[in-house]
Amino acid sequence: MSHEIRTPLNGILGFTHLLQKSELTPRQFDYLGTIEKSADNLLSIINEILDFSKIEAGKLVLDNIPFNLRDLLPDTLTILAPAAHAKQLELVSLVYRDTPLALSGDPLRLRQILTNLVSNAIKFTREGTIVARAMLEDETEEHAQLRISVQDTGIGLSSQDVRALFQAFSQADNSLSRQPGGTGLGLVISKRLIEQMGGEIGVDSTPGEGSEFWISLKLPKAREDKEESLNIPLGGLRAAVLEHHDLARQALEHQLEDCGLQTIVFNNLENLLNGVTAAHETPAAIDLAVLGVTALEISPERLRQHIWDLENLNCKVMVLCPTTEHALFQLAVHDVYTQLQAKPACTRKLQKALSELIAPRAVRADIGPPLSSRAPRVLCVDDNPANLLLVQTLLEDMGAEVVAVEGGYAAVNAVQQEAFDLVLMDMQMPGMDGRQATEAIRTWEAERNQSSLPIVALTAHAMANEKRSLLQSGMDDYLTKPISERQLAQVVLKWTGLALRNPAPERQNEAPEVHVGPLVLDHEEGLRLAAGKADLAADMLAMLLASLDADREAIRVARASQDVHALIERIHRLHGATRYCGVPQLRTACQRAETLLKQNAAHTEEALDDLDKAIIRLESEARVTA
């Protein structure tokens, strides 16, 4: 049912995105933007209703896997930061120092709840601050009682509004529901999820002054992993800090001190520069300046001059700015002595940035220029050439530097020989698969006391047990195929702190002619899956067609020898290739055969026969339309 509902909407969104790349008048572009936002909102509403139905039916199963609270909170805010910064809101993450970080639970559902709370805060706050806090209420040797809250300076709620908030299909009063909203199910779902976790959720609010939504939750403690070392002696180094927002400054000070730095706070840039100058060539010299800025406070041109002055005093600079102003301040960040990071600061990203800024050769000898002045280097790993071609093309079009390799052994070798900011790793590959390659990389890093390289799994399946398995094998995150430009940009931003540029729209005098074929071969779908790039769509289809004879023969041989493992591996590989081509009939046949084989279910032979027929039909159709 969920598939039947979502599929038409995904088509609307996909073709709207494709049409936005064509030549349009300003009015047409605005109309398409409205269509896209409306379809996005409708898809969100449908997802909420489906979640609610699953909860009501008692079908929702929670995960219980280890996670790090200090990653969960800022990662959620990072995704929502552009919406907050577009309204010039300050977004702050505070994890109190006595709070246990290694916990067990369902991090995906917790992130869903936090996303809902923070999104609501952004929606109903016109100016001011949104603060997400995590603190310890009580603990035993095995459990931690946590309070996680989201506080805003928004319009606030009356006691009558509060009573209605957690009821299905209701929002607050009419004045609130006139704001951009949805079903009103978000908070209901959050409440049911928290209750299923054994906790409670509530709100404290005053009309006109803001609201604080809070969660009280008891979670098991997980085994405390050793903190990643920075591979550089930060202890004793001094950092000058400038951040005009009190809570943001407090959070930043704590994060820098947790990294081993001694902080000195200044109230403006001139005083900071004077302080660095006075300490220059003394035992109390300041090694680093961390500047939290906005374009309203200082222009990029003026900031650039201050950066030059600081560099002349052997003081390196880290600039923190709103996500919406990243491109503006990029102009002020120009060499290896400077880093540019998006707000809100995340401890993990700060650690990586500091390691490159303070001693850029200490972590990876060939890391090159700092993150702020170079494109992110991404290693793409997949045994399917068509998959590699698509991901590489999408990333390169958005400004990334990409190295593509086929197979796990090649991935391990590449990581040992070159420096990367991120690895995108396919899971099912012959020889050394994605899990084995990740484990080999983690072992190699541990032997050298080297910081962990973010590794993101690329998987065709996203069931709860598979997600748990991926994270436990050393992966940091996962993406479910087929992969979109937006997903790639988000995961690069999340794990590297770098915002990729939007791909340039295709300029053409007239729209390309699109032939809508039968279900066997759908050129229109292929064009959409290739992000509107006709040449790329044709190349990927050609690569798929070129491999079909070998795939069919390998499946025949494995079937004859009853080698189930080889069958699953080959069909999975073929299934992966179909996800990036307009071949819906073959894709469906692959999915059915692979699923039945894994389940050792009945009708497997019938599914394999159907798959063989689907290959023959596609080859025949391709010859006719060639």
Automatic annotation (TrEMBL):
The keyword Cell membrane is annotated on this UniProt entry: yes
Ranges for domain Histidine kinase: 1-221
Reactions mediated catalytically: ATP + protein L-histidine = ADP + protein N-phospho-L-histidine
Chain ranges of the Response regulatory domain: 377-496
Membrane topology: Multi-pass membrane protein
Residue(s) carrying 4-aspartylphosphate: D426
EC number: 2.7.13.3
SUPFAM superfamilies with a match to the protein in the record: ATPase domain of HSP90 chaperone/DNA topoisomerase II/histidine kinase (SSF55874), CheY-like (SSF52172), Histidine-containing phosphotransfer domain, HPT domain (SSF47226), Homodimeric domain of signal transducing histidine kinase (SSF47384)
InterPro entries: CheY-like_superfamily (IPR011006), HATPase_C_sf (IPR036890), HATPase_dom (IPR003594), His_kinase_dom (IPR005467), HisK_dim/P_dom (IPR003661), HisK_dim/P_sf (IPR036097), HPT_dom_sf (IPR036641), Sig_transdc_His_kin-like_C (IPR004358)
UniProt protein name: histidine kinase
